[in-house]
Amino acid sequence: MLPCLNKKIFGVDCLGCGMQRSISLLFKGDFVAAFYMYPAIYPLLLLLIFLGFNFFIKFKYDRLIRMSLMATAILTIIISYVIKMKIIFN
């Protein structure tokens, strides 16, 4: 696994810490552990799947769906990061 430079230099996790391990757990079939490792893995996966389909097949409300999936993924990343930092620093 690639080391996190932010964690190495500053000693604090970044917003993407845990994503590589979560993807590895997904490939192993451990879906619950992948969620606990990085909760935003499923919104990001849905976004990537939608973008892949949308590249070949155009949907009527593709812009709305894309923006909604992006907002969901970003909010999930930020909320899980805030919860993780609150647990670490309390």
Polypeptide structure, described:
The chain is mainly alpha-helical and 90 residues long. It is 74% helix and 0% strand. It contains 5 helices and no strands. Helix 2 packs antiparallel against helix 3. The mean pLDDT is 94.
Helix content estimate: over 70%
Run of helices and strands = HHHHH
Please report the distance between the alpha carbons of the first and last residues.
28 Å
Poorly predicted regions are none
Report the biggest beta sheet as strand number plus sense, adding barrel if it closes.
Answer: none
Instruction: Report the sheet-strand fraction.
Output: under 5%
Task: Give the averaged pLDDT, no decimals.
Answer: 94
Q: What is the number of helices?
A: 5
Query: How many runs of DSSP E, i.e. beta strands?
Result: 0
Compute the CA-based radius of gyration.
15 Å
Structural class: mainly alpha
Q: Label the overall shape.
A: globular
Helix/strand layout:
Layout lengths: L4 H6 L8 H10 L2 H7 L3 H16 L5 H28 L1
Keyword list:
74% helix, mainly alpha, 90 residues
Brief synopsis:
The chain has 90 residues and is mostly helical. Helices cover 74% and strands 0% of the residues. It is globular.
